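PROTEIN DESIGN WORKSHEET
SECTION A - STRUCTURE
LENGTH: 384
TOKENS:
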């Protein structure tokens, strides 16, 4: 362990060189490591790996060997972990959806355990049970909870609403068979990070009006992506080049999930994909005006309105569906939601999605616990 700091110092120049070469020679997006970010050295190394993966993925795709996305999934696969002495772990299927269930081995003193249904991040395109194995083991051990990790179908092969439907189906199956896992039916939580936070919010909204199932105890949303109407909110401007999620990649992932391609990513980034009347309708919920002033100090400027392109809107109009963009749900749904925990990071394009949803929940009488990582960046729970 003592060698690690020295190793990092040796590798940092190589990481910077890899990032520069991939950016300049291969036309990949430029990145920005803010001075106040958590563990900048480690972030640079991860960035170098991601840039190298993207560069090699482009080469493989051009040669016809495999797609960039397929190669990216291969690289991102988590390594297999050994037996955990504190957990029973088994792979099952809930309504034909693959899941991995983590159950603490220790006795629970006669009390039923908490149940946590976890949806992984990865832009609806990447991520797997193995990728989040370490995270889910940690959650189960530290909270002494039964954790169900859900392997939903990924885009672009499986477009919206496939991921949402898988997460909802697995959640309902678990809640209907909860006695098999010694879980308290009044203490079930949905949880997810990034795209998984989006799916957790959508599932929570769907179940809010169900009378045939136990009510969810809470939802935990970790830097969630909750809307695709405005990619020019303050956090998108401030953190457009901050890894691990760049502004253009956020739009790319949303389009891959929606349509299975990202043909109109530039128009979406510019805001040409939403009609003026629709934008006005949702302005009460999706607007910089609803974001506290202290979050607008750093690098924010008013932007000139762009021309609406009707042809693009026809391909992305489902962005207005709450199952895809939960921030757009009606108040009648939002006020029924369970107690919520929202984590946001300062150096994250999705920061303002979380802030806007926090306000919506609070305005509708939902109790919210909010934690903001001042030095945090997108994807931090997967790296630390």
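SECTION B - SEQUENCE
RESIDUE ASSIGNMENT:
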């Amino acid at each position: 362990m003592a060698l690690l700091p020295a190793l990092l110092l040796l590798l940092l120049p190589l990481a910077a060189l890899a990032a520069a070469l991939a950016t300049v020679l291969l036309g990949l997006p430029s990145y920005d490591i803010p001075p106040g970010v958590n563990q900048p050295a480690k972030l640079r190394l991860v960035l170098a790996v991601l840039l190298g993966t993207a560069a090699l993925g482009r080469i493989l795709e051009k040669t016809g060997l495999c797609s960039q996305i397929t190669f990216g999934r291969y690289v991102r696969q988590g390594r297999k972990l050994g037996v955990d002495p504190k957990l029973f772990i088994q792979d099952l299927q809930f309504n034909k959806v693959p899941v991995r269930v983590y159950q603490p081995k220790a006795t629970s003193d006669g009390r039923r355990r908490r149940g946590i249904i976890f949806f992984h991040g990865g832009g609806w395109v990447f991520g797997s049970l193995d990728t989040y194995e370490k995270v889910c083991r940690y959650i189960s051990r530290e909270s002494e909870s039964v954790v169900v990790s859900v392997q939903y179908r990924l885009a672009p092969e499986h477009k919206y609403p496939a991921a949402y439907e898988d997460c909802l189906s697995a959640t309902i199956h678990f809640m209907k068979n909860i006695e098999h896992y010694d879980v308290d039916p009044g203490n079930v939580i949905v949880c997810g990070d990034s795209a998984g936070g989006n799916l957790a919010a959508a599932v929570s909204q769907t179940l809010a009006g169900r009378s045939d199932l136990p009510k969810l105890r809470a939802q935990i949303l970790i830097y969630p992506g909750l809307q695709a109407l405005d990619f020019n909110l303050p956090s998108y401007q401030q953190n457009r080049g901050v890894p691990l999620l760049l502004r253009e990649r956020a739009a790319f992932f949303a389009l891959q999930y929606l349509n299975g391609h990202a043909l109109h990513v530039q128009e979406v980034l510019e805001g040409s994909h939403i009609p003026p009347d629709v934008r006005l309708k949702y302005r009460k919920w999706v607007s910089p005006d609803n974001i506290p002033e202290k979050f607008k100090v750093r690098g924010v400027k008013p932007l000139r309105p762009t021309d609406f392109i009707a042809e693009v809107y026809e391909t992305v109009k489902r962005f207005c569906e709450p199952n895809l963009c939960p921030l757009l749900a009606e108040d009648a749904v939002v006020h029924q939601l369970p107690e919520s925990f929202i984590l946001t990071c300062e150096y994250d394009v999705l920061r303002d999605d979380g802030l806007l949803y926090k306000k919506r929940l609070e305005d509708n009488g939902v109790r919210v616990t909010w934690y903001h990582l001042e030095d945090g960046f997108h994807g931090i729970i997967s790296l630390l």
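SECTION C - NOTES
The domain at 81-384 is CATH 3.40.50.1820 (Rossmann fold).
The CA atoms of residues 211 and 230 lie 34 Å apart.
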